[in-house]
Sequence to fold (227 residues):
Amino acid sequence: MRFLQDRTAIETSEVAVIIAVVVLVAYGAYQLLGARIAQVVQDIAGRI
Amino acid sequence: MLPSSLPAQITVWVLLLTWLVICVIFDLRSRQVPASLTVLPLILAAIWQLIQGGWQLVALVALLVLLSDLPQAKWRIPVACAATVLGLSIAASPSIVYAMLVVFAVWALWEIGASGGADAKIIISLVLFFADGLLFIPIVLVGGVQGLVGLVARRKTIPYTVAIAVGTVAWLWMISYSG
Fold:
């Protein structure tokens, strides 16, 4: 199995910075808008 | 999910941190972590998660492991994405939902070559053990800081396992103080 056999470990790079920024933005957006999004989804589900 | 009694929690933390430090040492020496240090913990964490009732998460990880051998490489991520969406629909709790999203993201990063197999297996083992994807946030933040330091110093010499170990310690510290 390719995934289980892969022993390589990477060094931190530009990719790590990009992933950190993406995760930070996504988490921030979820914290800010999560409740509102859930409310909108529930409203739509209620109308259906 | 951690054991409820304090001595058991401390034992788990010590074992966990010892394992992570050993992984960092191997990574610093050879940029590789032996399969015995990643596959065995992955299996143990899966068994632990099965005992805890999070079979959906274990099933997703098993499926992703199998999908990595799909002969048509271009179909691996789309099929994994579909499997994850299916998994999310049967997830038992919000923490399992976060855990599934992180497992998929980590596997996909490995699949596109942005992450090493050892790093991916260590993170997935941790997520399986704790069944909480929020663990990923301190890890990627520490990884981001490491990456910035590397960019400023124009050197890429810090292994990602350091970010995994430091991020895990930070997360354990946070959950112990948040109760």
Notes: The two ends of chain A are 45 Å apart (CA to CA). Chain A has a mean pLDDT of 81. The interface with chain B takes residues 1-17, 19-21, 23-24, 27 of chain A (CB under 8 Å).
